[in-house]
Amino acid sequence: MFLEPKCHAGSIEVISGSMFSGKTEELIRRLRRAQIAKLKTAIFKPATDTRYSKTAVVSHDKHSVQSIVVNSSTDILALCTNAQVIGIDEAQFFDANLTSVCRTLAHRGIRVIVAGLDMDYLGRPFGPMGNIMCIADDVTKVHAICTRCGSIAQFSHRLSDDDKLVSLGEKNTYEPLCRECYCKLSSVKELVNDNCDCN
Hints:
Radius of gyration: 17 Å
Largest sheet: 6 strands, parallel
Number of strands: 12
CATH topology of the domain at 11-142: Rossmann fold
Low-confidence stretches: none
CATH class of the domain at 11-142: Alpha Beta
Mean pLDDT: 86
Order of helices and strands: EHEEEEHEHEHEEEEEHH
Shape: globular
Helix content: 25-40%
Strand order of the largest sheet: 5-2-6-7-1-8
């Protein structure tokens, strides 16, 4: 169970999982609790994420909070003045520098809450998320429900033929799948085998 950290201690918290697993919802919930505790908060999102809003962080169930839109992770350091709690949404879309940015902020005594996809549509670690999870004080893995069988889902299966790594989309483009259903799709099996480092 997640426990709120002491307000004076710097920390890194990660909320990870597949599409439609409630990552952004949990990020917003933690930030609102920090605001209730009268802590100064700031939330950042990458400029590339324009699905629901260009300026707000919005969960799939339409809860939202105004955010600061940045083009690179280093912009966060310059724009987080006076914040005691910082939220970072869609972290997988940021550059590799986000890991050191999170570490720097935590060392300054700031509570950093990072939300993002842990895996891309090929089942590989996505962007800086793997490295951030390694240095985090706490990692919460949230799960969706598999649209094929109703089991716990941890994979984001892309429904389109688009093979770009970053392809913004919603329920018409992605579906959450459990491992069994994900591996039953032959094209995905081939992609996973082609990119597996353990063979």
